[in-house]
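Appendix B. One record, verbatim.
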Amino acid sequence: MNAAVRVLAPLLGALLLGACASGPLPRGEPTSALPIGADTRLDLAVDSLALAAGESGYRLVKGNEDAFALRMRSASIAERSVDAQYYMWHDDLTGRLIAGELFDAAQRGVRVRVLLDDLYARGLDQSLANVDAHPNLEIRLFNPFRTRASVLGNTLELFATLGLKNRRMHNKLWIADSRLAVVGGRNIGDEYFGAHDELDFGDLGVLLVGAAAVAASQQFDEYWNSAAVVPLAAFAKASDATAAVAAAQAAFAAHRSAAAASEYVERLRKLHAEGEIGLQLHTLGRGRGVRMVSDDPAKAFGGDPPLRMLDEVRGLLGSAKREAVLISSYFVPMRKGADTLIGMQRRGVEVRVLTNSLAANDVAAVHGGYSKWRRPLLRAGVHIHELKPIRGASQEGPLGSSRASLHTKAMVVDGRLAYVGSFNMDPRSARINTEGGVVIDDPAFAAQVRAQYEQAIDPARSWRVALAAGQLRWHDVHDGQPRVFTGEPEADGSRLFTAWMFRLLPLDSQL
């Protein structure tokens, strides 16, 4: 931050905070994951696997509809607790259905804890307050803004806090009865679950039971009880809790009734009948080589906290002997990252990268930050593929005119170690936002993740980027015929301009 901003920030802060309380925000009472039992349906299902001490069960969650069904089913059968931690939770078809399932769980006496990043939650205070009024359900916010409904106020607060409000919780975690966890890159919303008419995010998650689920609960507790988290009730609270709960219950029931006739729910019924979605615990792999990883929530306060996720990724890449496959929806390696990948390639490690094309990327600015590193990486021999914006590309079946966009964050090292989570290969994930995920040491699981890469780099689904006489070329196959593009394929003028502008601007550290 330059000197002018440092001088102006306190003045802006005085203007902003002078009219409101500027003392510490209230902290919630510390709570912890409920102890594992032996008599709930999830207890019995997991115990039937006869996992040894320290062992975990796991399976890759590929399909968006399967990811939705997992959350709905586990919430519907939970009998003790559900903990949910998300960067973004949309107020749409699937977002309301999942929220309604959590509300119903609270009605049954299940303790529900929901931790949301405040960036997208701050405009929903009043509607969230009705849900938060339930005695068995609590919502907390990560790194909340004091100004709740003003874009100008949020902007001033960003400056007044010297950019600390730019630090967001990007983690995604779902835990039922302290027995079953789902971790990965999906937020809660239609585009992440195959229900959006215009956009379909391809992503991966991992279903976990056993020791990894216990570790996931510990990870959740670290965030829930951190100094960066504030109860929603500090900003919005129902004046009549009984009336608020009744209103929320009626609203969820009406939404569920309306959604029952939707095309999306009908497709879910069909997939469930065919055995394509559900808990499917009998299909789990198992082993002790499973490690939950996450950033320190103190990353929200800046300073010099340990960068756990960055260190984890560096360690995985540094361990590669033969091959490293990187799948990242937003790929901005910067100089250090590019040098690392180039160095790996030079020492004999085949480096393969899959990211979004400009036409498929939902944030064209990120493409601008990435594009400046393509040539040096390609010159070093790094393999780069860019996903096409394929229409009707839902993994579980086409849905209207939805456009596929890569949202996966995964890595496979030497066909043995696999990471799946929320960490993009970009500066924001490395040093600004908090991230999480799971690392699994299992060649069979790693092969499943790598198979997703192989499927995506098919010439019908992605462009292979290469150099010809120093110039970028995009290669694919269309109607059985090879094609070569000399410019960013299928990208419209606005995307080209945005990417070009952010390629020039010195803003890479924020991408």
